[in-house]
Write a structure and sequence with these properties.
The chain is globular, with a radius of gyration of 21 Å. The longest helix is centred in the middle third of the chain and has 31 residues. The chain is built from 9 helices and no strands.
Amino acid sequence: MKIKSWFDRSGSFAEGVELYAQLPQPSIHLLKLFKVENTSNFIRLKYELKLAINKGLDKIEIPKNPEIPENSQPKTNTEEDSAFLNQLIESSSKAEFSKETMAMYPPELHKVYRKRISNFYEACELKFKLNALPEEANDQALKIILQLESLWDKIDKAWEILHHWRDHHRIMPTDVSEDYSKFTPMQLANEKGLLETRISKRKKTLEGISKKMDADPVNRVLANSYHKKKEELEQLQVNLETIKKILKGN
């Protein structure tokens, strides 16, 4: 089973641990930690498996029971840090990190481009901090892991927006379309509920169009309809996230 499939179908903790154990040179400390299933360890497991995907390890065939040479030694934290950064930068380069330039995108997407890069390096710095923590610093580790999760979600979203332009020459919405600053808390709550309903319906619409596209992949009308609905969905999600931030601030 591939790691991405595990995420897509919300796999169990035990399955995730098995996947992590099959990665090249998994952390012995983490394998011991993952013997106990709890919320904190599940979040850490998801983070480590997401890192594996970003390193390109989900694209290679991982042996069921990898053989470890008898004379092999576990890496120290310093070696692990260095290897992590090298692998992460290398994987990002393969994902067009070194090939692309901001000039490839329209001005509307320049801030997305810049933010993706800054989030990437911030994630690297946080990883170093995480590795430097003592084993007993569980609360600090969990805080950093949650920050990393948020950063990788933002990086993934930025790639989705940039690739949408690269593949279709269409701009995915990135700014809120309504001024919610004058809404009362009750109005915001009502708008939040409406947006959540519309988002759910729009996702079902996209699923239906996607199935039709599978049966008729060269139908450009269907393709255009799909991209338009996807952009509309993104706008709804941007608006919803904006409202959530306002409500959280209140």
